[in-house]
Amino acid sequence: MQKILIEGGHLLNGKVRVNGAKNSAVALLPAALMADSDVAIEGLPNISDVYTLGDLLEEIGGKVSWDGQTVHIDPSNMVSMPLPNGKVKKLRASYYFMGAMLGKFKQAVIGLPGGCHLGPRPIDQHIKGFEALGAEVTNEQGAIYLRANELHGARIYLDVVSVGATINIMLAAVKAKGKTIIENAAKEPEIIDVATLLTNMGAKIKGVGTDVIRIEGVPTLNGCQHVIIPDRIEAGTYAITAAAQGNEVIIDNVIPQHLESVLAKLREMGVTIEEGDEQLYISPKDPLRSVDVKTLVYPGFPTDLQQPFTTLLTKAANTGVVTDTIYSARLKHIDELRRMNASIKVQGGSAIVTGPVQLEGARVTASDLRAGASLVIAGLMANGVTEITGIEHIDRGYEKITDKLNSLGANVWREEMNEQEIEQFQES
Ligand code: EPU
What we know:
This protein is an alpha+beta fold. It has two domains: 2-17 and 230-427, Enolpyruvate transferase domain (UDP-n-acetylglucosamine1-carboxyvinyl-transferase, Chain), CATH 3.65.10.10; 22-227, Alpha-beta prism (UDP-n-acetylglucosamine1-carboxyvinyl-transferase, Chain). It is built from 14 helices and 23 strands. A four-stranded mixed sheet has the order 21-22-1-23, with helices on one face. The protein has a four-stranded mixed sheet with strand order 2-14-16-15. α1 runs parallel beside α2 (48-59) and α1 runs parallel beside α6. It binds uridine-diphosphate-2(N-acetylglucosaminyl) butyric acid (EPU). Uridine-diphosphate-2(N-acetylglucosaminyl) butyric acid binds next to α1, α4, α5 and α11.
């Protein structure tokens, strides 16, 4: 078990390249199993979530091979086997095996998904969609059983705008007989990316990126090639890092339009940002001004950048209020930031951040992926050395984060934890 150490205070300069989008990758891999022949996906990030999903594809008979940055998935020998627990528990996105296997095999048994603990994360809308398409869904001893004689198109209104439910229903519907309409669908770029892959495989999907998606079922899906979109959350994390501790930082392989809400907030704070075709040029100016942030579904401010943004606000003058309307309990980073001298109060589910304060290095724990990112940024800003445990969360979503930060001039490294530290970590 490792920890990350950061000697804070170094100004960051230079260029950092963003990887393929984690939250696309984790849906593209299960989607690939629906094809009859080889699917090649270029640009998948080298992160543990991708490897876990690759292992799950192999557990059901798929062949997964890497050729540089391209992953080939050969689904020709896949069978509908139960995926009850084990690796399924490691990440939330294993729930995409439900839609994909139901669509392809008309049956699936999948353990309840794990993932970051951000408060309640129900999957009732996924199940509502599967049932509308004709599946019988039961929860037996911690696993979801899905069975259908035949899937048929349906009109499905999502009561909650959900990324996962939109993608999962789309996966099951592309091979259902007839027409499916998903209303109040989510519009995140990752959903468009998955629909692009499915369309390349021969699916008929219209309206993706709006809140009404229309799907005409097809009997078979073929293999294809696909290039993944860049990770807007990784790009946003580096943009916030550059605003917090940068001099001049270029973020490469970005679709700037995917980050408009975040860039608008950074500009409100006084950060200078220029947009190239696929780059962001970020140069902050002291002092930064505080802003209020409310997370919303896309194209609003993403919940996945709320925690990193909270860290940035510790440096800004006056008070900023951060409210997460998607996951109101996504606040576990706050106690850790307080250990580092941040002045943050939690009131009525909002974090009230008063600045500017000088953060101080401390021993802190990442409780989830984006909490981890917020602590890394705090460590870069702090006086002295910060030690972060729980870094397996960070490695689920950020490829080579220590190398990338060091290439910008940071001093970040990994060390093995000793037995006492592991014990303390496990008790915490
Ligand atoms: N919700 C329901 N019922 C459902 C589904 C969702 O009530 O059946 C609620 C959730 O509890 C939440 C809201 O709807 O309050 C939105 O959840 P959504 O389904 O959109 O989230 P998700 O698909 O489970 C994805 C990302 C998350 C990201 C959210 C919101 C993946 C694998 N995960 O989760 O990413 O925070 O959308 O944008 O795509 C991360 O990358 O750190 C991460 C947690």
